[in-house]
């Protein structure tokens, strides 16, 4: 007989199964096995908010297999993820298998490596009911908000809409920023730049006007700018003061979930959803040539910046060997997390620093490699010495007009030899300055004045929105990506390149929420609720009392809103597609599966069509446009717009390029451009990638 280990994902099961070998059977639950029913509220508000859990549709066969394996098992270990959701899945599995939740049936590990998994087997514990209760509280609160407010939105605004405890706040933040931009009144100001010449150097030094006689003065009109230009015309620029300061710039902390999402957005252009998808692949395990299958990074849902002493020692040894002793700090670097951060897990780091990105590159897809390198470099940098720079500030006087110029000189690269942190805002321009001393004099080669206007606040990107949500304590690491995905899918927000912009629908729904459910879209109220969920996790509060406290005033506002909100009429966006049944121009609608085209003459004409998204590639058979479509199973594929006259179809996205060997069209697959003809030698990459995927490798 063997022991049974239950995890969530099949990929994770394969990886762990190889570590444990004979004597253990590892199977996957495929995520949650029980949840609240979709067809009803599923919460008994009259009896202490008792949840009504049901077996999820499609999980019957999985559970039958789990029960069968459990009957013959010598022991059962529940090895789901080490967070609230994972603990809840283990709790549900224990209920289904009739396991005592107080028995030593639960094992957890922060990384999927042989050492970590085998160690966890020797240290089983009971299910942490506080973690389970925190998850139940969140689930019940979200269900109450969603199922009580969403029907009001359907009736008063449009069918298919939804409200959510975190998504409504995120939408409000984006709408409020857009309102700030619309209300913004630009203020005129002028900058004056002197380009100064030093006799021994060809390069000019830029110096900015600061004020008069050392006192800061803003120039707000052209007349004042002209007075400054006239005053300094032909006059020497005398150096009155030089200040030099040596600064140490410390490395950023290793990644948390939110900082990883932010940096992957800035540096790699990844959406939060894509970042988490690729990170999950790296965490669950990939077959590396010559090393076998193993998880490459630690657990990916964390807001802690803590790292284990073993990982820290490994990083310091690697730094010394690779970069030299001068890059290893005398004492290890430690980082302080946010006050509200949970410290149950480490920061996101490589599971093994001996596996460098370059060594793993041939076994990873391009996106996996980019993200692994980002995580690896950030972690190594976090354990390195600071960068040392010398900052110089020079003050000059020209006929009573004060100018200032700044310069930066690197004294020691420190951690920047491997990593530089991205920024959301434009970093101020720096220049290298020659040796300058008080009393030196410069001549101006030219002086320029420029009219400028103050700028409104920037719209949010996914990176800056995640940063704000974290700073305000709204949501937790696991919620950031799905929240952004949801508000875009519901049509409240649209993504233009990296920018998040509210739609008219987003404004309407947000205003309705502000007027009728002000607590739900209040940032502080939402943050306070997150703290209460943390207190449940810590065993300080009962989950049902928190839900009860919330529900009493909430249901009153729901009842009042149902009676008082007037119907909102939104104008539909008209498309350029004509209805073939009645001749009207079809309009865009949003349903549970996203946008679609519908005839405006409904209910007389009930014609609907999917939105056709063209890609910039001609059909290889007839030259018409290729359309991105969805199958009945919601799987994306690509076909000719002239179907059924032209039968071209492809599961992989075609690119505007022909194969040099056989002339077939090329497609994008696993981050590579390969031949669509699987019999062609240029499709060998396809075969290798497919083989790797079947073995638990690249899994995009």
Strand content: 15-25%
Q: Helical stretch count?
A: 18
Strand order within the widest sheet?
8-9-15-14-11-16
- Distance between termini? 36 Å
**Helix and strand composition category:** alpha+beta
Radius of gyration: 30 Å
Provide the low-confidence segments as ranges.
Answer: 686-700
Number of strands: 29
Shape by Cα distribution:
globular
Q: Largest sheet at a glance?
A: 6 strands, antiparallel, barrel
> Helical content, roughly?
25-40%
What does this structure look like?
The chain has about 700 residues and is α+β, with helices and mostly antiparallel strands. The chain is about 35% helix and about 25% strand. It contains 18 helices and 29 strands. α5 (about 130-155) packs parallel to α17 and α9 (about 270-285) crosses α12 (about 365-380). The protein is globular.
């Amino acid at each position: 007989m063997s022991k049974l280990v239950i995890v969530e994902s099949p990929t994770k099961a394969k990886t762990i199964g190889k570590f444990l070998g004979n004597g253990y059977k590892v199977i996957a639950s495929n995520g949650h096995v029980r949840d609240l029913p979709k067809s009803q509220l599923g919460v008994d508000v009259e009896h202490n908010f008792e949840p009504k859990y049901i077996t999820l549709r499609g999980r019957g066969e999985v559970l039958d297999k789990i029960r069968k394996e459990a009957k013959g098992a010598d022991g059962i270990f529940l090895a789901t993820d080490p967070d609230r959701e994972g603990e809840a899945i283990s709790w549900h599995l224990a209920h289904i298998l009739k396991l005592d939740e107080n028995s030593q049936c639960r094992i957890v590990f922060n990384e999927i490596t042989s050492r970590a998994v085998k160690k966890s087997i020797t240290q089983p514990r009971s299910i942490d009911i506080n973690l389970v209760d925190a998850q139940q509280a969140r689930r019940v609160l979200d269900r109450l908000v969603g199922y009580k407010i969403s029907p009001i939105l359907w009736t008063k605004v449009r069918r298919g809409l939804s409200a959510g405890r975190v998504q409504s706040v995120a939408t409000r933040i984006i709408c409020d920023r857009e309102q700030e931009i619309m209300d913004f009144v630009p203020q005129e100001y002028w900058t004056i730049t002197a380009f100064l010449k030093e006799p021994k150097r060809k390069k000019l030094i830029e110096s900015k006007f600061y004020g008069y006689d050392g006192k800061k003065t803003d120039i707000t009109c052209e007349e004042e700018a002209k007075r400054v230009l006239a005053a300094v015309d032909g006059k020497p620029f005398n150096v009155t003061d030089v200040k030099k300061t040596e600064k140490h710039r410390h490395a950023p902390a290793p990644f948390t979930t939110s900082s990883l999402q932010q940096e992957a957005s800035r540096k790699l252009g990844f959406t939060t959803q894509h970042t988490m998808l690729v990170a999950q692949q790296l965490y669950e395990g990939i077959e590396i040539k010559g090393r076998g299958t193993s998880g490459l990074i630690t657990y990916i849902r964390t807001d802690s910046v803590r790292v284990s002493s073993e990982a820290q020692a490994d990083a310091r040894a690697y730094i010394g060997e690779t970069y030299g002793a001068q890059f290893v700090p005398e004492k290890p670097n430690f980082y302080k997390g946010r006050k509200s951060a949970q410290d149950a897990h480490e920061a996101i780091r490589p599971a093994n620093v001996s596996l460098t990105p370059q060594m793993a590159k041939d076994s990873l897809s391009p996106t996996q490699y980019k993200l692994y390198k980002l995580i690896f470099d950030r972690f190594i940098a976090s354990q390195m010495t600071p960068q040392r720079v010398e900052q110089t500030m020079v003050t000059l006087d020209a006929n009573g007009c004060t100018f200032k110029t700044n310069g930066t000189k690197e004294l020691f690269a420190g951690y920047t030899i491997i990593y530089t942190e991205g920024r959301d805002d434009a970093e101020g321009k720096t220049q290298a300055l020659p040796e300058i001393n008080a009393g030196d004099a410069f001549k101006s080669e030219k002086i320029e004045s420029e009219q400028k206007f103050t700028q409104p606040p920037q719209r949010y990107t996914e990176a800056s929105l995640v940063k704000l949500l974290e700073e305000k304590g709204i949501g937790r690491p696991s919620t950031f990506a799905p929240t952004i995905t949801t508000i875009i899918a519901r049509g409240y927000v649209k993504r233009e390149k990296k920018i998040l912009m509210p739609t008219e629908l987003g404004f309407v729904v947000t205003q309705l929420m502000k007027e009728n459910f002000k607590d739900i879209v209040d940032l502080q109220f939402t943050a306070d609720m997150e703290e209460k969920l943390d207190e449940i996790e810590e065993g300080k509060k009962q989950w049902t009392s928190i839900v009860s406290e919330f529900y009493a005033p909430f249901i009153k506002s729901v009842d009042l809103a149902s009676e008082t909100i007037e119907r909102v009429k939104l104008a539909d966006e008209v498309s350029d597609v004509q209805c073939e049944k009645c001749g009207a121009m079809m309009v865009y609608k949003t349903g549970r599966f996203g946008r679609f085209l519908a005839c405006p003459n409904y209910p007389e004409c009930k014609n609907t069509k999917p939105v056709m998204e063209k890609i910039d590639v001609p059909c290889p058979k007839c030259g018409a446009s290729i359309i991105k479509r969805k199958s009945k199973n919601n799987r994306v594929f690509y076909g000719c717009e002239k179907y059924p006259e032209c039968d071209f179809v492809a599961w992989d996205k075609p690119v505007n390029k022909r194969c040099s060997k056989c002339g077939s069209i090329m497609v994008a697959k696993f981050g590579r451009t390969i031949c669509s003809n699987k019999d062609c030698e240029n499709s060998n990459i396809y075969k290798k990638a497919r083989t790797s995927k079947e073995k638990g490798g690249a899994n995009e």
